[in-house]
Specification:
It is a single chain. The chain contains eleven helices and eleven strands. It is of the alpha+beta class. The protein has three domains: 93 residues, no CATH class; 129 residues, Jelly Rolls (Sandwich); 93 residues. Strands 1, 2, 3, 4, 6, 7, 8 and 9 form an eight-stranded antiparallel β-sheet that branches. The chain has a three-stranded antiparallel β-sheet with strand order 5-10-11, with no helix packed on it. A hairpin with a 5-residue loop joins β10 and β11. It is globular, with a radius of gyration of 25 Å. It starts with a helix and ends with a helix.
Length: 321
């Protein structure tokens, strides 16, 4: 494999890379301190604590007025263009991703809020499923042209119906969504669509819901909070590692109030690691009519008793009626 000499040199001397990253950090600090940036970023901190957008005037201006969002991004580009020109191997200190169609850069995060810069490539977009979450979303379209639809859901959570509103997107557009019941779906992007996006999660978000575009049937639920997703991964890891000593903690996690998907994951892993402790927790949940997992727990209990009759003796001895 051919390695560029400049990159090879970094293996023996890391000082240039540290210098480059210091330059990236300085560029970020300079951007944040700009006259046009500092008030909006200060408001962003309050927004992350749960303040309404109208309570954050400088931030609100970015997503309701004209020119302010564009100026904020021009300032960002100016600082980082100079820094990268002087330090070609530097990496801007932002989380980023690219899936072949959409590029996303996380410009800032605070509490329940995120500020993102997103670019979507031209082309036709088809979606077999649509997703809804407990977020407020504000978009400032910076550049590009696209045809899209605002898709709203109505009806019970398990089976919804859709209403659609066609919309054309271009630079200067300002949009706001309650993502618990509406979303923006790009149909065709004629020119790369660049958007500055602001998100605010609710204090106690419900699970993210994914629906079939054709039938409206609920396809999948996932944790609505990043912290819950992290805990789900941790519980799964405990199970994969076979750490039976973690079963009491998992049982406690399954029994306490919290995200239902997390509780269910903890219960499953507990059953796999220590059947006795897991089954005791399962029966306790099934017997609590007020518990939102009672129905699923009761069905799983019945299935386990049918397949493993010996568990009935365990239920009788440890879970007396």
């Amino acid at each position: 494999m051919r390695v560029h000499p400049v990159i090879a040199a970094l293996r023996s001397d890391r000082a240039p890379q540290r210098k480059a990253q210091s330059a990236m950090k300085a560029a970020l600090d300079s951007w944040r301190a700009e006259t046009g940036s500092a008030p909006a970023l200060a408001d962003f901190e309050r927004f992350g604590e749960g303040a309404a957008l109208e309570e954050c005037p400088a931030l609100e201006q970015l997503f309701t007025g004209q020119g302010d969002a564009e100026a904020l991004m021009q300032t960002l580009m100016r600082h980082f263009s100079l820094a990268i020109a002087a330090n070609p191997l530097g990496h801007p200190p932002f989380r980023n991703s690219f899936d072949g169609f959409t590029s996303t850069i996380q410009l800032a995060t605070s509490g329940r809020a995120q500020l993102l810069l997103q670019a979507r490539e031209p082309g036709e977009y088809k979606a077999r499923a649509v997703t809804y979450s407990d977020n407020l979303r504000y978009d400032a379209v910076l550049a590009g042209k696209a045809q899209a639809r605002i898709i709203r859901i109505h009806g019970p959570e398990e089976l919804v119906c859709f209403t659609e509103e066609p919309i054309r997107l271009a630079g200067g557009a300002r949009l706001a969504f309650d993502c618990s019941g509406e979303m923006l779906l790009a149909k065709r992007i004629d020119k790369r669509l660049v958007t500055l996006r602001l998100l605010q999660a609710t204090a106690k978000p419900r699970p993210v819901r994914e629906y079939c575009r054709t039938s409206g049937k609920l396809l999948h639920r996932s944790a609505g909070a990043v912290s819950s997703s992290r805990l789900e991964l941790m519980t799964a890891l405990v199970g994969r590692m076979g750490r039976s000593d973690g079963a009491p903690v998992l049982a406690e996690l399954a029994l306490r109030e919290g995200e239902n998907s997390l509780r269910w994951q903890a219960l499953r892993e507990c059953l796999a690691l220590d059947t006795a402790q897991g089954f005791v927790a399962l029966v306790s949940i099934a017997r609590n009519a007020a518990d939102p997992l009672a129905g699923d727990a009761g069905a799983l209990r019945a299935q386990l008793l049918e397949n493993y009759p010996q568990l009935r003796e365990l239920e009788m001895s440890q879970c007396p009626a």
